[in-house]
UniProtKB/TrEMBL annotation:
Gene3D superfamilies tied to this protein: Cobalamin-binding domain, Methylmalonyl-CoA mutase
Recorded family membership: Belongs to the methylmalonyl-CoA mutase family.
GO molecular function, one term: intramolecular transferase activity
Cofactor(s) annotated in UniProt: adenosylcob(III)alamin
Keywords per UniProt: Cobalamin, Cobalt, Isomerase
Stated name of the protein: Putative methylmalonyl-CoA mutase, small subunit
UniProt cross-references to InterPro entries, sorted A to Z: Cbl-dep_enz_cat, Cobalamin-bd_sf, MeMalonylCoA_mutase_a/b_cat
Length: 626
């Protein structure tokens, strides 16, 4: 009985049968509009996937873990990863203590963020070999790997590394990232990089000197396919230049680490990491390495800064959890979860502990590290992997056709692609087509940004001066524009002693007044206003009484389109006489009555098609908040 196969007892169900059942449930609604959506990459996501969707993609499912092209994994038996934590402090001794605490609480990879000239407000002030010795003193190097985030100071850190210790980890040096972030990189970066890699290869073969950061593109707005293509193009450029400089391909490959951002698109991110291994194996094969392990992409992943929010930062814990899951299921070798409050301040022991525990839960309670490629056999994920691979390869080939990565950035082609994708994202965020929970949807009205310490601001401080040799790429956060509006409201409230108050006026049709009151509260609370919802009114007299109890700066009329004009006409004139500065808003878009309503003093109409960001800016300006 134990060996009896039961699948033959059930007839196979083809795709057409599934679609027919779905269409029956839709009761005549348009299948494409209801259930099919298009990614930013340009391909469609179906509501159901079957074996037929794999089609000629059997190469994705037929290979075993640890075999070319490594879609499933570069490892054959386990899917373990290093738990990494990056540390920032303005004190070397404090950073050392934080590292020891992390190492004794489950962290197996320590990253130190080093202060540099272009971002002096951030980082550990390491300025000598003695400082570095103090920073890493007492760390259990047999248990943890050592990483640095030092940007243009990476060669300096390299020169100070202790020669008497056996180190494993990564230097984090990426000259191309520095070039794109600051518009210039250090002099002779490739010869310097070559020296670093050759030294590591001979002295510390398990210490990787070269990192290629995808955050350069992803945190600046690129799509997943662009992120993958540009990151791989940068890596291929490094291999080509270092090989031309006389380095062995296998040595270069052993020294290279991919540092990928993990975005919020759960399944697409899993597919991205599988695709990265496939494409890198194909790319490096063209350089004719002698060792098969050179084809392995070493993937380090860190949660994306792009979608971390300053307001309602606890939500960042949830974002980090799904992102870390994507990286683990996607087969990354190292995972780094940023603390939930890292946007606002230098993280304390509590937020660092929560960040660690996300990964510890994944290992010790969910056992994700015990299964190689949990995504294998999922028709959906196999299809996504194939779609992303093809799209990223198309973009990669386009970059190669113009001369490679450096030519692409010198001509501004890569920057333009990133800028175009960023513009689309900003538009989607501004119009709430892309939701950032707690920021542009369902805000926590009681939340306030704490007093910022000297090491943090809501925006990026960048002190780069002088000439640049290429167009720069600027990182951004999804919630920054809305947060700026809300912060202005908070600043205004502190100076004036009063938070602008919005009073909702629900009256008339039960269904419409409730729906529009809820919509209005969500819409306007994103700007930091105090929104008062009295529940419901039945007569204009009740409204007048309500305004005696609540001194409002803004009133929002919430009712049906059929009732709105009579509602406004009966009451708003009286309200304006009592308070000439009162701002009147209508929830809804009664197109046939807009001119009449404006003649009665209504200034704004808010509805699902409103440009959320621009409307909030205009309302804020009207209220005199600068």
């Amino acid at each position: 009985m134990a060996n009896q196969k039961l699948f033959t007892d059930f007839p196979p169900v083809d795709r057409e049968a599934w679609i027919a059942l779905i269409q029956k449930d839709l009761k005549g609604a348009d299948f494409e509009k209801k259930l099919v959506w298009e990614t930013a990459e340009g391909f469609k996501i179906q509501p159901v996937y079957t074996k037929e969707d794999i089609g000629d993609k059997q190469w994705l499912t037929s290979n075993l873990p640890g075999t070319f092209p490594f879609a499933r994994s570069t490892r054959k038996l386990v899917s373990d990863w290093s738990i990494r934590q990056d540390l920032d402090s303005n004190s070397i001794s404090e950073a050392n203590q934080l590292a020891k605490e992390a190492a004794s609480n489950g962290v197996t990879a320590i990253g130190f963020i080093i202060e540099n000239k272009t971002s002096p407000q951030k980082g550990i002030p390491v300025n000598s070999s003695k400082d570095l010795e103090t920073l890493i003193q007492g760390l259990p190097f047999d248990q943890v790997t050592l990483h640095f985030i030092a940007e243009e100071r990476s060669p300096e850190i390299f020169s100070w590394l202790p020669k008497d210790k056996v180190l494993v980890g990564g230097l984090g040096y990426d000259p191309f990232k520095i070039l794109l972030k600051h518009g210039r990189s250090g002099k002779h970066s490739i010869p310097v990089l070559k020296e670093i890699l050759e030294t590591f290869a001979s002295s510390w073969p398990h210490y990787r000197g070269l990192s290629v950061y995808s955050s350069t593109f992803r945190d600046a707005g690129s799509t997943i396919s662009e992120e993958l293509a540009f990151t791989l193009a940068a890596a291929a450029e490094y291999v080509q230049q270092l090989k031309t400089a006389g380095m062995d391909v296998d040595t270069i490959a052993s020294q290279l680490m991919f540092e990928f951002s993990i975005g919020p698109d759960y399944f697409l991110e899993i597919a991205k990491f599988r695709s990265a291994r496939i494409l890198w194996a194909e790319i490096l094969k063209e350089f004719s390495p002698k060792v098969e392990s050179s084809l392995h992409a070493f993937l380090s992943a860190h949660t994306c800064r792009y979608n971390y929010s300053a307001y309602d930062p606890n939500v960042n814990m949830l974002r980090a959890t799904t992102e870390a899951m994507s990286a683990a299921i996607g087969g990354c070798e190292v995972i780094n979860v940023s603390p939930y409050d890292s946007i606002l301040k230098t993280s304390d022991s509590f937020s660092l502990r929560i960040a660690r525990n996300i990964q510890l839960l994944m290992k010790h309670e969910s056992y994700i590290d015990k299964v190689v490629d949990p995504a294998a056999g999922s028709y959906y994920l196999e299809s996504l992997t194939d779609s992303i691979t093809k799209k990223a390869w198309e973009i990669f080939c386009e970059i190669e056709s113009i001369g490679g990565f450096l030519e692409g950035i010198q001509k501004g082609i890569i920057q333009k692609k990133v800028a175009d994708s960023r513009k689309k994202k900003e538009e989607n965020l501004a119009n709430r087509k892309e939701i950032l929970l707690g920021t542009n949807q369902y805000p926590n009205g009681e939340d306030r940004v704490p007093e910022l310490n000297q090491n943090k601001t809501l925006g990026e401080i960048d002190s780069v001066t002088g000439e640049t040799t290429c167009e720069r790429i600027f990182e951004f956060r999804a919630g920054a524009d809305i947060e700026e509006i809300r912060l202005k409201t908070e600043t205004f409230a502190k100076k004036s002693g009063k938070t602008p108050t919005v009073l909702l006026l629900p009256m008339g049709d039960l269904k419409m007044k409730k729906a529009r009151a809820i919509f209005s509260q969500n819409f306007l609370a994103c700007a930091g206003y105090k929104v008062v919802d009295p529940g419901s009114y039945t007569t204009p007299q009740e409204i007048l009484q309500g305004l005696k109890e609540t001194i409002a700066d803004v009133v929002v009329f919430c009712t049906s389109d059929e009732e709105i004009f009579g509602f406004v006409d009966s009451i708003f004139g009286i309200l304006k006489k009592q308070n000439p500065n009162l701002l009147g808003i209508v929830a809804g878009n009664p197109t046939e009555q807009i001119d009449n309503l404006k003649s009665k003093g209504i200034e704004f109409f808010i509805h699902i098609k409103s440009q959320h960001l621009e409307t909030l800016k205009s309302i804020q300006k009207r209220l005199g908040i600068q």
